[in-house]
Amino acid sequence: MSKRSGMANGATKDTGSSSAGKRTPSYSLNTASPTNNPPAQDKQAVLLNAQNPGHFSLMRAYHLADFITLMNGFCGFMSITSSMRYCINPTDTGKLWLALGFMPFGLFFDFFDGKVARWRGKSSLMGQELDSLADLISFGVAPASCAFAIGMRTALDQLLLTVFVVGGLARLARFNVTTGNVPKDSTGKASYFEGLPIPTSLTIAGLMGYWTYQGWLQDQIPFGTVAQGTLLEVHPIVGLFVVHACCMISRTMHVPKP
Question: Which reaction does it catalyse (predicted)?
Answer without folding.
Answer: a CDP-1,2-diacyl-sn-glycerol + L-serine = a 1,2-diacyl-sn-glycero-3-phospho-L-serine + CMP + H(+)
